[in-house]
Amino acid sequence: MSLDHISKTLLLLISLELFSCFKIDTEVNQSTDIILEEAPEIVNLPACPIYACKPDNVPFANDTCVFYDSKTNTNLCSPCKDSSTYCEFNFNSNFSCIPIVEYEHGESNPGEKCRTLSDCDDAFVLSCTDGVCQGTVAGKSCDSATFCNPGLGCISGTCQPLTKSGSKGCLSDFDCENGAGCNITNALDFSSNLCIEYGSVVAHEIISTCINSVNNLCEYTYCAPYKGLFACTSQLKTVGNIPAACAAENAQCTSTSDDFFDPPFSFSQPGCQCAYTETGTELYCDLFNGDAQYMAYYKLLFEWLQTADAKKCNTDRRTASRCIESNWDKKKYDALMYYQANAYYYPIIQNTEPCVLNSFLDQFYGMHRRAYNQDNDSSANILILSIFIIWLN
């Protein structure tokens, strides 16, 4: 498991398939079962799973970090003691500490670091030269942009230079230079569409596309129908204070509204999440892109996309954490991962015990402590972890 993959650990909680299940030793499993069975069975289980620190009288093997008891829907957590390991995660299962591997064979794309060719994805990469995976050069044939070296897109079947911001010539973001996206006015005519810098279109300005109410050309990322076209919204955020409590898992949460639109537009999402607490009764809404935590993340993400370092990434991989880590300043990369995690996982890390965070997110909990120069912090709303909400992959 690579450091890049570890930076996506908790993203599995939402959608990604990072980890498989590692069972603890049978002997330990049986021993723990006996102890847990001595406790009275809970007749009315709480709405959410329980996450608690391992009691001292519950024996775990050295490589066990979480034991799951299905009778009580409880996860008992014990952080990995060896800094060269991390806690592999899977829902409703026992987890074990397994070794961290710096490189995952066959996963680096053009523009990303490698030691040997075997570290690169052989579907897209031709060689590992000077520690970087090399793809297809300009003028050569390609099946998709992922084949091409940084600075190139797959246009009309060959790797060609990306279109600069402010110029026409795109059918998707990946035809534009890495700091810009494609404002598509004609999905069939490459020459009609303009590349525009990410985050540069202010509220209530017209844009051509709006998918699921999101367009990253917009300053605040949300968009809505407007007079037969679309327009960027103002800063839509949580109504009232955060964290915003909600009633049931996956219940709808709705943002503030923008009265510029008729009718007024607000963003709604099934974003009610269980917090990882000892009670199993706390549920909170996901944050919205206009909340301060997300705005901090997008500000730094858009900053990355405007750097010369971002141009070292393959166009398809412009927001991939592996390529950002390969090419950007480490402190800024860590900050980006911190901001993303703090926003994306905000509802589930409220009132969470440090031992629970440290079990599921040991690498990033350590980054959190270093960032704040603290040895212990029970506040979960500044958790460290990587990953990307929709973009980082």
UniProtKB/TrEMBL annotation:
Swiss-Prot/TrEMBL keywords: Signal
Q: Which residues form the signal peptide?
A: 1-21
The protein's organism comes out as: Blepharisma stoltei
Protein's name in the database: Dickkopf N-terminal cysteine-rich domain-containing protein
Q: What is the lineage of its organism?
A: Eukaryota, Sar, Alveolata, Ciliophora, Postciliodesmatophora
